[in-house]
């Protein structure tokens, strides 16, 4: 009996420590949220609620400035889009469009892919808490490398458009597409404002 009580107390203590200190869900994150401040003028700060303002700068009590990286204008434009496949909805196929050969070459229906816009809108499936997260004002940029083999061109181009449209330009150093011995040979590299083949 004592062993069970000891185990229960250990689990209760572990749960309480997790509740207090876990990032994003613990009580510590609530404390940090209350101490988020918005920078107005250099050296001047005022309290401001979490998750408001497009491109605004914020500073935590740790002194590090954070930014709301969301592009609310683009989010609104995407919400207004209508068409086949928009918002991740199914593409309606007619009887003539049902063709098994469309799946053989790429493993998905290339006919459907060719008829969906390259800049297709997608639903935001993130957890509600993630939609209000702040990230550091200064983040390192990154190279994005996409290897592919006999990929359908429209799906590949849709991936590139999605990266460019949904990532702040300052965070992309380059996008490199590497053809992994396809029958159709291409290597494409993207740097902000330029394409290099």
Chain-wise SSE layout:
Layout: H1 2-21, H2 27-34, E1 37-39, E2 45-47, E3 57-59, E4 65-67, H3 72-80, H4 101-104, H5 110-114, E5 135-136, E6 142-148, H6 153-166, E7 172-179, E8 188-191, E9 194-196
Parallel strand pairs: 6-7
Antiparallel strand pairs: 1-2, 1-3, 3-4, 4-5, 7-8, 8-9
Features:
transmembrane helix, transmembrane, membrane, extended, 197 residues, Glycosyltransferase 2-like domain-containing protein, Nucleotide-diphossugar_trans, alpha+beta
Structure write-up:
With 197 residues, the protein is α+β, with helices and mostly antiparallel strands. The chain has a domain at 66-179. 30% of the residues lie in helices and 18% in strands. It has helices at residues 2-21, 27-34, 72-80, 101-104, 110-114, 153-166, and strands at residues 37-39, 45-47, 57-59, 65-67, 135-136, 142-148, 172-179, 188-191, 194-196. The strands form two sheets. Strands 2-1-3-4-5 form a five-stranded antiparallel β-sheet, with no helix packed on it. It is extended.
